[in-house]
Amino acid sequence: MRQHFCRLAPFTLQLYHILANSWRCEVYFLQISITVKTKSALPERDAVRRGLHDGKMAKKIILGISGGISAYKSVYIASGLKKKGYDVHVIMTDGAAKFVTPLTFETMSGNKVVTDVFDPANETPTEHITLGQSADLVLIAPATGNTIAKLANGIADNMLTTTMLACTCPVLISPAMNTAMFENPATQANLETLRERGFVIIEPAEGMLACGVEGKGKMPEPDVLIGYVEQWASKEKDMAGLKVLVTAGPTQEAIDPVRYITNHSSGKMGYAIARMAARRGAEVTLVSGRTALPKEPFVETVDVLSAQDMFDAVTSRAPEMDIIIKAAAVADYRPAEVATEKIKKSDAASGRSIELEPTQDILGYLGEHRREGQFLCGFAMETQNLLENAAKKLVKKNVNMICANSLKTKGAGFAGDTNVITVLTREGMKQLPLMSKLEAADAILDEIMASR
Ligand code: CTP
Fold first, then answer.
1. Distances from the Cα of 124 to the Cαs of 128, 129, 160, 228, 293, in angstroms?
2. DSSP string, 248-306
3. Which range has the worst mean pLDDT, 28-32, 58-62, 111-115, 382-386?
4. Residue 214 has what pLDDT?
5. Ligand 1 atom nearest 358 alpha carbon
6. Which of 171, 232, 331, 449 makes the best surface tag, with the fewest CB within 10 Å?
């Protein structure tokens, strides 16, 4: 996808800001000159990004296999990952070794398969720690109900679970079992515990299971799981050491205990940015209005409801942040008074009109109180005069970057999974093509990293 990015940047954009005082009207002229940039060193960087190598060494992946019939599919995962240039280290439980022999995985991965913490043939006497702490990523596929339960409870009674206790890198878990076992409240509670601790749980697929039951519990196909590994392991950690705060979702402004004013924001764009920043190594805090999205792993989420809650959560954390990205759709107005009791239909006086008062502009406040070296990025969701309005916000809110998108552009907007963004800075403007929100998030982070 990245190769298909519009390479026409940098556009140079000069803003002539003329204040027509008598009319209190702000007029912006956009003078755009286009420089066509060659592809130069980008392919090389893309290769690094794809994670084939981090420039020096292949990424080290632990493929953990527990005792389920889908262990046979993991042979293809080991082989596929190796073909893609990963350094694959397989750890098997005793149960897994009953389905497929370690020799098969040894041949496919090119590395010795470890099955026993106490095996004198292990490369080091503390192989569980050496392996666990040197890995870039772990994929446990298949993860049985038993292994999941052990991980959730910190039990370390075999090579896989012991290594997992010592492991500090991201862990992807692909549960695979009979539907009833998967849906058992104990399994679900264990998965929830792991989710809360930042493990990535890959939803099992539905279909005919080995036990003859039709339902949920199948391990996804090897290509799907290889895709997960690529997503998680392929990122260059170019944001390591940076503290990033992202806001996402809508705010809710209470009218009475029952009702509130809100907007259509789904939070998807902000969550995608938080996810990609975390993948790139940043320490990410996500201040989120109410959304239907699951918690992002490896991201600290602060849940808020109103614009005032968001203001408090953001401004109290802002001084320590290196980058703040405000993707939230914050209400500009809230009811001047919140009724303590439900407003009744019959209560005509207070029921028909609501007096509104402005909320605080969080991004505007951040722009005024920005500390030296801090990078501020806002969003502008418009329905008309996209670039003109976005350019105004860039100046008025004193920020480094505005990501502009129009509700009227096909593929852009609140609820969908794609976006079409124009990135504006004081130096220039870049039109990004239609892409998934995850890709757009990555592209926005590229722009931020390039211009800070
Ligand atoms: N924003 C904010 N606090 C507000 C309103 C907006 O921090 N009270 C931020 C948004 O998160 C976004 C940027 O300001 O990053 C622009 O938001 P937008 O709603 O497009 O613009 P407004 O400033 O609200 O102006 P208008 O509604 O007139 O377009």
1. 9, 9, 16, 30, 43
2. ESB--EESSSS-EE-----SHHHHHHHHHHHHTT-EEEEEE-S-SPPPPTTSEEEE--S
3. 28-32
4. 87
5. 8
6. 449
pLDDT band at 451 (very low <50, low <70, confident <90, very high): very high
Cis bond upstream, residue 43 (ω within 30) = no
Q: Which atom of ligand 1 is nearest to the CA of 396?
A: 23
The residue behind tokens 């298909």 is 4
Domains for the chain: give ranges and CATH numbers. Answer: 2-34+237-336+357-451 (3.40.50.10300), 60-233 (3.40.50.1950)
To the question of pTM greater than 0.70 for the whole model, the response is no
CB 335 within 8 A of CB 355: yes
User: Ligand 1 pocket, 393 CB below 6 A?
Assistant: yes
- Separation CA 146–CA 160 (nearest Å): 12
Atom of ligand 1 nearest to the CA of 307: 8
Q: What would the pLDDT profile of 318-372 be if each residue is shown by its tens digit?
A: 999 999 999 999 999 999 999 999 998 887 665 578 999 999 999 999 999 999 9
- Residue 389 in tokens: 């309005």
- Bond prior to 10 in cis (omega within 30° of 0): yes
CB 138 within 8 A of CB 164: yes
Distance between Cα 328 and ligand 1 center (Å): 8
DSSP assignment of 372-408 equals TT-EEEEEEEESS-HHHHHHHHHHHTT-SEEEEEETT
The DSSP bridge pattern shows strands 260-261 and 356-358 to be unpaired
Q: Tell me the mean pLDDT in the region 207-215.
A: 85
Per DSSP bridges, beta strands 422-424 and 401-406 are: antiparallel
pLDDT tens digits, one per residue of 12-43: 333 333 333 333 333 333 333 332 233 332 23
Q: Is 359 in the pocket of ligand 1 (CB under 6 A)?
A: yes
Minimum-distance ligand 1 atom for the alpha carbon of 359: 8
- 122 CB within 6 A, ligand 1: no
For ligand 1, atom 16, which residue shows the shortest CA distance? Answer: 380
Let me know if 211 is a catalytic residue: yes
List the catalytic residue out of 6, 211, 377, 403.
Answer: 211
Does residue 253 line the site of ligand 1, with CB under 6 A? no
Question: 82 CB less than 6 Å from ligand 1?
Answer: no
400 touches ligand 1 (CB under 6 Å)? no
What is the chain's mean pLDDT, rounded? 86
Q: How far does the centroid of ligand 1 lie from the alpha carbon of residue 364, in Å?
A: 8
